[in-house]
Amino acid sequence: MLGPVETRSVSPVFVGRTDELDTLNDALARAAAGEPQALLLGGEAGVGKTRLVEEFAAAACRRAAVVAVGGCVEIGADGLPFAPFSTALRALRDALPEEFATAGAGQEEELARLLPELGEATSSRHDEQGMARLFELTARLLERVAAAHTVVLVLEDLHWADASTRHLLAYLFRTLRTGRLLVLATYRADDIHRRHPLRPLLAELDRLRTVRRLELARFTREEVGRQIAGIRAAEPDPAQVDEIFERSDGNAFFVEELAVAATEGCCTGLTDSLRDLLLVRVEALPESAQGVARIVAEGGSTVEYRLLAAVAQLAEDDLIEALRAAVGANILTATTGGDGYRFRHSLVREAVADDLLPGERSRLNRRYAEAVETDPTLVPADARVMRLASYWYHAHDAARALPAVLDASVVARRRHAYTEQLRLLERAMELWDTAPEEVRAALRPVDYTDVYPPCGCDPATAPLRYLDLMAEAAVAGRFCGERERALKIAKKALRILQDEHDPLRAAWFWVQRSRLVQALARGDGRQELANAQDLVRGLPPSEVHADVLANVAGWSMLHQPGPEAFAAAERAVEYARMVGAREIELNARITLGCLMVDAGDVEAGLAETTRAMEAALEEGVAHVVGRAYVNLPSELEAVGRPREAVPVLREGITFTRKYGLLDSEAWIWGNLSDSLYALGQWDEAAEAASGALGSAASAKPRGSGALRLAHIALARGDAAEAGRQLAISHAHYGTHDPMPQQLLPIARIAIGVAAEEGRLLDARAELDRALELGFPPGTQRYGWPLLLAAATAEADARALPAAVDGRADVLDKLAEAARKLTTGAPVWDAYERWTRAELHRAQGTDTAAVWSDVVTDFECLDRPYDLARVRRRLAQALLEEAAGDDERDRATELLRLAGAVADHLGARPLAEAVARLAQRARLTLTHTPRKALDPAESLGLTSRERDVLRLVSAGRTNRQIAEELFISPKTASVHVSNILSKLGVAGRGEAAAVAHRLGLFPAEPLTAEAPG
């Protein structure tokens, strides 16, 4: 073996790049201060990206940073899943073994997908959140390792990155918030054509303010001169510098090649072709060295020495001599670990590989594959399967390539590299018809498939079918986000199945198609599930049958809850138990428990959901546990038990974060916001809603977060912000898959915003749309707040002339809807009474007795804001009905309590309404220092008499005074008589004149009550 060989084509002097190094060093300083940094370094091939990174890495090490480098690998144009992250994490683990072990404690099985030496990767269920779980754990691992050490993570050659690597990098750039971490990724800019898969990622990252992007420019003529001087260790001839600068156009690598060629006297023999320029020094090597270079070029980015020896089939001395010549000419270089070789620059490798003849390329790939099969230890264990698949595929040997590619697809699936799994499965489908029949007959589903349940055959003995590959590919496409490709595969499979009597397989594909249609916003997926249900109807219980029923029940619970959903959930549980499909059973039990609660069997439903969650926890079915943590507290909130829901929700956040269940975590944040809102913890509720927006992997959970923020903004009087968040929620939810649990709350907030902005007709239109949708069984938790919002809007607008037209019809609709809507829990009994009280208020027939009953209901519930609102209404009714001291004292206390809650929550509309009512009724809600006697007090007038005199001075009659001050006309008459006596005047006109002369009442408008 050879160690690194220093060659004269590399300048020992680092030239230029001052601004770029300053930027990198500034980022390093920020990272060291605890502010994570993300940088992209782009530039054309040969411009000097690697040299700049090496200089920066050396500087970072001098500042006590830990540098971990990983490069994207190109093997036969097939990138290895997560290759740069695996390499970098391995280096990080070697540098900080104790910190790494502590940071990854408890998650070794999952992290083994990236770093196999951590242990055997867990065989957990594969789903759409599998990759997100891995990404979340990786991000948390890096943050923890970087808590006490500055860590520089370098990922080179991103233009060769596999899709999984790109997705993980994007996730890190979006989510890293803590730790002394700097992530630097490099890519070859001139390779990023319009359809290059890296192009969308770069566009996405450009939109992130946290990501800095550097583009390396070519050298200037002065810098080229300094580079040549460094290579030659002497000042170059200016004419030669001009010539090399002109021909290289400032590309650092071409400058090196031209400088060496000029030194060796072959400059005049060069052609203007770039490829010829790169090949000229290769062709100057001895024949044996040229042959070795060709072998290395086809082997991938790096070729291990023992593998190279096996493929070259040269005597060891001859091989060493050939390698020495290639290394000495600076064509090849030894790897950092000293166990293999690579081209010093990828441009040369690509030129040599492109120069191979087609038959020569196939022969070399076959020799590589045969060598690895003969001795698997020639390559690292974690790369062996992928490299064999690539070698055999490019050897054009379908018989050997098909099983190798399928093996590689299994490895990709285990690493949650679903994009690579899909590509490999599509390659297997491409090879299927050309592979010999005996090869296909020897393949078994048990070895290569995971998601497709047995359909009347034993997967260990039945041959693998083309449909099995299609099933795996459809699910892989759904998991990695390639839903269009997955849907095409599912449609093709269903067309094939039209000619076969295989109802279970067809039903399975219809379920997949339902999920894909929903994900692609092409519909709600109901018809596809109906087709699946028709196919399994009447068939004996099976895993597919149970899965279809569980999906139908889950869909119905969200879209059309009722008896059919309940029956489907019960049968799904029964069938799953009969066939031993435990995961399907637990999922169906959660659905069943929720439907039981919604149907009114509250305690039994909560108990069933709890038991299913506990069983899933015990059996380690993480995604089912995550779903239970979403639904169980949601049902507690649905029956008015938010204080019980909150601790369960906080447990759920901890669990889903641990397992990377991002969407489940987001739904839990949204539900936590609901419960905290009900409990009067609005600041915390807003933080929870923001958590839903920040943690979600898909759109709908983000919609739930925005909707909660809209709700809080509306209650705090910010109608503009409520409208903005409502629009965001609309956009995230979409229109293709309507669900009552989304549409009804959206309608409620829309009614509230419209009413707050004085758009009563718009509020009525929203109500009509909601009533047309109706309130399916179990949706009373959404229905009653909506009816209340609409009734309140009508009551607040009772005095508006524009509201008269159509009011009676609206009130009739609301009364009819309230009559039909069930309650099922004390909280909704209270809402029903509240809604009816608002309907009375809208007709001017509400009384203190009506509102007193509503207050009594809410005093038994844990909902301080709702209680404050109805207390304010009761106070208003008391003041309107009588003027006795007892009623006024009670109203004062009710308003004081309501105002305190409104002030604490920041509920501005309620606080202002309380203040207005107290002012009009001349109620003092707070203790104030006694003021000096004013003229009215010197005349012996009471506070009430002063109010009456003010109105007498304004020309009001006794009846008008009574209405304004919430007293009876008789009481007003008594007050007027007392005032005339105390002022010593004979009539109302004289009393007004006295008041004017003493300046008792400055001109002030009389304000009417605003909606609240």
Q: Strand order across the biggest sheet?
A: 2-3-4-1-5
Shape verdict: elongated
**Poorly predicted runs of 5 or more residues:** 1-8, 266-272, 928-933, 1004-1012
Largest sheet: 5 strands, parallel
Percent range for helical residues?
55-70%
Structural class: mainly alpha
How many individual helices? Answer: 50
Question: What's the number of extended β-strand segments?
Answer: 8
What is the residue-averaged pLDDT? 86
Q: Using only CA atoms, what is the Rg?
A: 38 Å
Distance between the termini: 84 Å
Q: Per DSSP, what share of the residues sits in E-state strands of 2 or more residues?
A: under 5%
Could you describe the 3D structure shown?
The structure is a single chain. The chain is mainly alpha-helical. Helix content is 66%, strand content 4%. The strands form two sheets. It has a five-stranded parallel sheet. A three-stranded antiparallel sheet has the order 6-8-7. β7 and β8 form a beta hairpin.
Which descriptors apply to this entry?
1012 residues; five-stranded parallel sheet; mainly alpha
Summarize the topology.
Elements: H1 18-32, E1 37-43, H2 49-62, E2 66-71, H3 83-95, H4 97-103, H5 108-111, H6 130-145, E3 151-156, H7 163-175, E4 181-188, H8 198-206, E5 211-215, H9 221-232, H10 238-248, H11 252-263, H12 274-283, H13 287-299, E6 303-304, H14 305-312, H15 316-328, E7 332-334, E8 340-343, H16 346-354, H17 358-374, H18 381-394, H19 398-414, H20 418-432, H21 437-442, H22 445-448, H23 466-480, H24 483-497, H25 503-519, H26 526-536, H27 543-559, H28 563-579, H29 582-598, H30 602-619, H31 622-638, H32 642-659, H33 662-678, H34 682-695, H35 699-715, H36 719-733, H37 740-756, H38 760-773, H39 780-796, H40 807-820, H41 826-843, H42 848-859, H43 864-881, H44 885-905, H45 908-920, H46 935-938, H47 943-953, H48 958-965, H49 969-983, H50 988-998
Parallel strand pairs: 1-4, 1-5, 2-3, 3-4
Antiparallel strand pairs: 6-8, 7-8
